[in-house]
Structures are given as structure tokens and as C-alpha cells.
Amino acid sequence: MRAFAGEEVVEELDRALAKVLSHGSESLKLITEFFTLLDAPKQDVTDTYPPYTTEGRKINIVQNTLDLELAIESLKHIKIIGFDSEQKPTFKKGEKAKGVALIQLATPTECHLIQVKQINDLSSLMRLIGDENTVKVGVNLVGDKQALYDEFLVKMRATIDIDGVLTRLTSRNSIGAKKAATVFLKRNLQKSKKISTSNWEDKTLSEKQVKYAAEDACIAYDVTIHLLNTYPFVNKAMPPWFQENFKVW
Q: Is the domain 40-245 a CATH 3.30.420.10 member?
């Protein structure tokens, strides 16, 4: 643009746009801000931001039926939770997946890491997963939903894939949790390939596994709530059932 029209013309257009926005509606300003953030230059600024954390949430490791019941009870009146799951990775061609090893559930104050393979009775968890009155928000939930159905024959209901919502709004390919954290929260979500492919069936999770797993569920919650609070028009990209029943932010 500058090479074609010259620096003065571009600066004049910038001033004109700024003037329009300064006199425009709040909605127009928010929409412009939203797309400007997503259209920012592609250089990696992630390292200039502070690390994303679980923001002071209490992390609960759930390893038995009693602890699971207590965790599910604490979620009874929570309308929206962040969701993620982990499986033990397979490295050999043709090797069958071993099923869900860990399920992470995040609220504004807690994050429950449920070690599925160590719990005898998962019925309360399965009821929550199938509950239409508790919204589960996550990033790229297709694999999670399929794995849960394949292993437990439970259909995950009331789900919001925030990556899918952003894709519909912007007509882009997948944005992903890391970029969403960078763009909207100005935080660096640190994703380690080594940790993501670690053994999630270990009886005792390492500190790095706990951090990784908790952040995956919390970032889905935090980005979703931030978008709904900051950019009300995002609600219009949500499924109708969400718009009608979950005005809780």
C-alpha cells in the first residue's frame, strides 16, 4: 500500500479511520479491536508475554471414587467448566490407543485432574459429561468426544469448541489454544511436546504433567469467559441453546 500510494496517503487514511472509530459505536470499536488482534503481524511475540498460569486455582488430583464424588459435588452449581482429556500416546504403527487416562475439569477457582484408570466407579463423571445443563468448553474437542464414546459409550453433551467458534467468526483455519492465549490474554501458554506425549497413565503424575494438564483445561475456560465478557458479539456465534440458556458471565 505504501509503495503504491505513498506514505502521506497511507497516513491520511490512518487518520481518517481513527476519526471514524473515535465517533463510532462501542460495538464497532470492539469488532475492529477483535479483528485487529487476529490480523496482527505474524512475528512471534509470545516470548514477550508473561507465562500463562492457572491463575491461583486449587489443583485437585482425583485418584479414587470418594475424591471423584467430592469433585463432582463441587461442580453441581457450576454452569460452565473448562474441559480437556489426555491419553497415553502410542508410538508404534498400528498400536491401538489405550483409552482416556486423564480428564481435566476447570472452574474459576479449581481444576480437577481425574486419573480415570485408577478409579473403579466413574458413573458420576459420566453423568456430568452427558449432562445438558453443564457446559463443557474446550479446544478441538472432536477427539475427546470420540474417545469418550468409544470407551464408555457416553455422548458428551452441551459442548462449546471455542476454536470452532473463532474459526466461524474469522473464516480462518484452526487458531488453537496457544495463539488464543497470546492474542486475547497476552499470555504465553507453554506447550511441551515431551510432556504432551508422556505417560498419562502413571500412578503419580509429575509436576510438569500436572501443570500441563491443568493449564489445558483452564485456558479453554479463561479464553471463553474473556471473549464473552469483552466481545459480546461472540455470543452470536455460539449455538442457539447456549445463547438462550447460559447467560451467566
A: yes
